[in-house]
Amino acid sequence: xxxxxxxxxxxxxxxxxxxxxxxxxxxxxxxxxxxxxxxxxxxxxxxxxxxxxxxxxxxxxxxxxxxxxxxxxxxxxxxxxxxxxxxxxxxxxxxxxxxxxxxxxxxxxxxxxxxxxxxxxxxxxxxxxxxxxxxxxxxxxxxxxxxxxxxxxxxxxxxxxxx
Length: 163
Fold this sequence. Notes:
Distance between the termini: 20 Å
Shape: globular
Number of strands: 14
Order of helices and strands: EEEEEEEEEEEEEHEH
Helix content: under 10%
Number of domains: 1
C-alpha cells in the first residue's frame, strides 16, 4: 500500500507494544499498528512517499483505546531540551477511533510521519526513547498548531505534494 492510499481511510484501532526493556543499555523500543476500515493493519509511515507496510498485530500488542485509560504523550520544553511526558488526559476516544485520515505530515527525515485525522489530532510513533521515560510507542498530538510549535513550523504535507 502506498502512503497516499492512507488518505480517506478510517482509523478503527491503534495498537502498540512498548516494553520497558532496555535496548543497548539505555533505550526502550516501541512499535505501533493502525487498524484501518476493511481490517487492513499498517505501520506508521516513515516518509511521504513509498510503501506503508501492511502488518499483522502480534499477541503482545495492546489497544490504546481502553475507555478508562486515555493517555497523551508528547514533549515539553525544559531549558534547551525537549523532555518526553506521558499523562492521563481528557482525550476523547472519538477524536481518534473512527476518524478519517486527511493528511500525512513529516517534520524531519529522521522521524516517523504524523497521520492527521479529521478531528485535527495526529498519530505517530517513537521507535526508541530513553529507558524508563515511557515515550517509546504511540505519540499523540492534539493539534497541528502544537506540532508546528514544537518543530518551528517546518512541516511537509502529503496533501501539498499531490496537488
